[in-house]
Amino acid sequence: MAGGRLDVPRFGASLTVSRTGAFGWVLVVLAVVLAATAAYLVLRPAPSSLEPWSADGADPQTYAADLVVETNAARADEGLPALTVSECATTEATERADDLSGGADLEHAGLTPVIEKCPPASTAAENLARAAATPHDVVAAWLDSPGHRANLLDPDLYQVGVGCMLDGDEMLCSQVFLGP
Question: Number of helices and strands (H, E) in the chain?
Fold first, then answer.
């Protein structure tokens, strides 16, 4: 204290420098955090949209019914009417699935016998699947395939039958559509 005056050191300039320095460090830390987050997002494994499914305790009839529900939900999303379940198409689909069991390649057989056995249908189409996946995921995969999608969303088809069976640790299904 000189001459009755209190000399208070001024911190304005050094405080400003400190704030600037602190602000710079905040920017550096923020940049490191953002870089680490970006690296994580780029390098992490892609998330799977598939829901877990197991053949243990799986019921083929329930699975088939769920495929019909998921198919009709996809049709509703497109403004199409729901398919009705045909007992004849279900029988034919079940026989077709049985023919493909045991690891045989999924190959479509001719549909003329289905049309002959399921009057008054004059049109038939088929989707096949062998997967360890939920019915929702199977229908999603069909919707991603142009040919399967065309069958699912064909406005001229009005009936469906689904036959499923366990084939090892996968569900094997045939989905048969009927139309006029």
Answer: 6, 4
Q: What is the largest CA-CA distance in the chain?
A: 118
> Is the overall model pTM greater than 0.85, yes or no?
no
- The candidate with the shortest Cα–Cα distance to 57, out of 166, 175, 172, is 166
DSSP 105: -
Pairing of strands 123-131, 159-167: unpaired
Contact 176, 124 (CB under 8 A): yes
Query: In 3D, which of 149, 138, 173, 168 has the Cα closest to residue 49?
Result: 138
pLDDT tens digits, 85-126: 999 999 999 999 988 888 767 888 889 999 999 999 999 999
Distance CA 147, CA 140 (A): 13
φ/ψ of 5, rounded to 5, equals -110, 140
Q: What are phi and psi of 163, to 5 degrees?
A: -120, 130
User: What tens digit of pLDDT does each residue of 25-81 get?
Assistant: 555 555 555 555 444 444 544 444 556 778 788 899 999 999 999 999 999 999 999
Alpha-carbon distance 117 to 115, whole Å? 6
